[in-house]
Amino acid sequence: MPPPNTPALPPDPHASLLELRVRAEQRRQLLTQATEQHTPQEMQRLVQELQVHQIELEMQYEQLLLSQTEAQAARSQYMDLYDYAPVSYFTLTEAGIIEQLNFCGAKLLGTVRQRLAGRRFALFVVPAQRLVFGQFLARVFGTDSTQSLELQLQQEDGSLFFGQLEGLRVDTPTGPQCRLAVLDTTARQQATAALATSEARFRKLFSESYTAAVLLQGYQVVDCNAAALRLLGTTDRQQLVGQPAWAHAPERQPDGRRTIDLIHEAMAEALHNGSKRSEVLVQRLTGESVWIEAVLTPIELDGATPVVHILWRDITAAKLARQQLQQGKEFTESLLDNTVDGIVAVDRDLRITAWNTQAASYFGHEAAAVLGRSLAEALPYLKPEAHQLMNRALAGERIDLFSRAFQQRPGRYDAHIVPLYHSGESQPSGVLTVVRDVTERERLAEEATQQRLRQQQEVLAAILNTQETERKRIAEALHNGLGQLLYATKLSLAGRAGVPCPPSGSLKLLEEAIRATRTISFELTPGVLEDFGLQTALQELVKRIAPAGLPIRLHLSGLAHRLSPPVEIGVYRTVQELLNNVMKHAHATEAVVHVAHENGRLEVSVEDNGCGFEPAALVGQPLAGIGLAGVRNRVALLGGRLAINSRLGRGTIISFELDV
C-alpha cells in the first residue's frame, strides 16, 4: 500500500497515443469517402492536405501528451526519492530560508514540514555557532563545489544534537539555491568523545602511574612512563625508548634460559592467549640486579604490528621472601621427615595436611596417597574414640595419650594431640598429632621392672630361705633339745623305783608344755611338707586348726604331684597366715580353702563368712607385722597378684594365681 500523499500513477502514454491514432484514421477515411463522390480534384487535394495537417497536429499533440506524462512520472519519482530518502534534505535560499525539505529533515528538526517551510535554518543552530553557519552558507553560494561543516543543532523543543552539513549551490530560474544534506552525527561525536576521554585517561594512567609500564611493538620499546625509568635507575627516556626489550637484562636467566628466548615465548603466548605473566631478572643501570614481574597484554591495531602493554613490578623482596619461605619449608619438611616421631596434621574438616615419613612407616601409607583426604578415609580402621579426640582438640583441648597399642602393627605408642592456631584466630584451624613409638622404651622399662622384681624376689627368697632355715634350726632345737628334756622330765617324774610320784597337776603341765613345744616346732617347719608335699601338709594344717573351733572345708585338686619347694612353702605359709587372720579377726563360723593345680596354673583362695572389712581402707596404708603385708610379699615373690574381695558383714575372699 503506497504511503500517504503519494501521487496517483499517470496513464500509459503509449496506450493513449495508439488510441489517438486510431481515431484520426477513422476521421480521415470518412472525409476521403465523402469528397471523392461530390467534389472536384482540387477540392479533394485541399481536403487531403488538411487531413494530413490535421494528422500532424494530432501526432504533435500525442507527442506533447507523452512528454507531459514522462515529466509527471519523473517528478513523481523525484518526489518519492526526495521525500522518503533516509537522509535529511533541505532547499535554502541565499537568506537561509527553508523553501523545501523532506520528511527525514522534518523528523531531524523535531516537527512537521508545514511548520518548517519559510523559517530560517539558522534558528535550529545553537546560538554560539550561528555565525559559523552563516559563513558556511556564504561559502556555498560563493563557490561551485560542495562545502562541509559539522556543528551543533537543536530541535524545536531545544534538544541538542550534532549534524554534518553538506551544501551545494544550484542555479534555478528563480535564483540560486542551496541544496543542503544533514546527517545526525551525535553517536559518532559521543563515541569520539568517549574515545578521547579513554585515551586521555589511559595516557594519564600510563604516564602518572606508580607502576612501571612500557609499550612494545615488534620487541622494541616505543614508550614508557616515569616509573619504568625509576625502576631502571635513570631519568633519560632514550635509555629505554627505542631499545630492544632485553636490553637491560642479563644474557641468561638464573635458571639457564636465554633472556631473548624467554621474552619471545612470553610475547607469543600473550598474543595467543590475550595475556601472559612472567618473572624475569633485569639489571639497573647501576649494575644492581632486580627481579620484576611482567604482565603482558597485547593491543590489536588494524593492519599494524600489535602493541604489547607491559606492567613491571619489582618483586625482589617478595622473591627473596619466597625463597626464604621455600628454604624454610624444605627445612621443615626435612626436619619432619627425619624426626623419630610420626607427624600428622589435619584441618577443621579432618582432612590431612601434613604426613611425614615416620607416619608413613607407622600407618603403611605414603604421603602422596593420603594428603588432602579425610582422616576416616585414609585410616578407616580408627575407632570412634580417635575422632572424638580430634573434635576435642578442635575445641581447644590438648590431649596426651600414653602406652597405646598400634592397631595395624605390633608395639605401643604415645600420642600428643595439639590444637593448631593461625595468627590472630581464637579458634583452632587444625590439629597436630605427634606419635612416638615407645615399644622399645616399654620393653626396656618392662625388662627393668622384671629385673627389679627378680632382684626383689631374690632378696625375698633369700630372706624367706633364711627364715625357713632359722625356723628349722629353732624347731629342731625345740624338738631335739627342749622337747626331749621335757619328755625325760616327764618320765622321771612319772616314777622310777623308790621315787614318789608327783601330783597329777604337774604331769598335766608337762604334757601341755610338750604339746606346745611340738606345735611350735610344727608351725616353724612342718616336716610333713618336706616329707609328703603340699596336699598332705594342708590336710594336716586343717586338722590342727579344727580343735580351735573353726570348721574348715578343704578343696584340693591336681596336687598329687609335688611342686617346687619354694612354691609349696610359699603356698603353705600363705594359707597358714590367712587362716590365722580368720581365727584372730574375722569372727567367722566357717572357712573354705581352695587349692587347684591345672594346665601349669595354681589357683588358691581362702574364704570366710566373718565380719569382713573395707578393702579401700587398706590402700595407701602400711600393713604392720607379717599379716597381709607378708601374704602380699610371698605372693609377689611367687610371681602372682593378690586379690581381696571383702564387704562389711558379708565375709572375705582372698585369692591369687601362680604360673607353676
Report on the structure:
With 660 residues, this protein is α+β, with helices and mostly antiparallel strands. It folds into six domains: 13-81; 85-190, Beta-Lactamase (2-Layer Sandwich); 209-314, PAS domain (Beta-Lactamase); 326-429, PAS domain (Beta-Lactamase, 2-Layer Sandwich), CATH 3.30.450.20; 438-525; 529-660, Histidine kinase-like ATPase, C-terminal domain (Heat Shock Protein 90). The protein has 19 helices and 20 strands. Strand 4 and strand 5 (175-184) form a beta hairpin.
Summary keywords:
PAS-like_dom_sf; rod-shaped; 660 residues; 20 strands; Beta-Lactamase; 22% strand; alpha+beta; 19 helices; 6 domains
Quick take:
Pfam families: HATPase_c, PAS_4, PAS_9. The chain is an alpha+beta fold.
> What is the CATH superfamily classification of the largest domain?
Histidine kinase-like ATPase, C-terminal domain
Please mark out the parts with pLDDT under 50 across 5 or more consecutive residues, or reply none: 1-10, 622-626
Instruction: Give the percentage of residues in beta strands.
Output: 15-25%
Distance between the termini: 127 Å
Q: What Rg, in angstroms, do the CA atoms define?
A: 66 Å
Helix content: 40-55%
Strand order of the biggest β-sheet: 2-1-5-4-3
Fold-level CATH name of the largest domain:
Heat Shock Protein 90
The largest pleated sheet is described as: 5 strands, antiparallel
What is the CATH first-level class name of the largest domain?
Alpha Beta
What is the number of independent domains? Answer: 6
The average pLDDT value, as a whole number, equals 80
How would you describe the shape? rod-shaped
DSSP summary, beta strand count: 20
Helix count?
19
CATH architecture of the largest domain: 2-Layer Sandwich
SS-based structural class? alpha+beta
Keywords: Kinase, Transferase, Two-component regulatory system
Enzyme class: transferase
Catalytic activity: ATP + protein L-histidine = ADP + protein N-phospho-L-histidine
EC number: 2.7.13.3
